[in-house]
Here is the input.
Amino acid sequence: MTISGHLNDAGEDESDWFLLDYQKGKGLPQTIVAHIREGIRQAAMDPKSILVFSGGETRANAGPVNEGTSYFRVSDAMNLWDEHADGEVRSRTTSEEFAVDSFENL
Here is the structure.
């Protein structure tokens, strides 16, 4: 989940994310943004689909911030919507804010 207000470089800057020590230095921001891009790309291929960014408040130390909304905010800040279908996927995207692990995300 994001912890920064300046997310335009969230694909590179680890300080934009709430990362645990074992997650740092492993390219996690790049991986997350790649997954976001792929979700948008897949949704753009089917105009009847919806895209759901899933993930709740999984880190108490991060405060009341959830993963699903963080991914939506990164998409906005990095203007990822316009990479596919002129941004129309944004209107078909929502977030799920209660899943606390990968199994629940599915």
User: Anything to note?
Assistant: The longest helix spans residues 28-45. The chain has a mean pLDDT of 87. The chain is about 30% helix and 10% strand. Helices lie at 28-45, 67-77, 102-105.
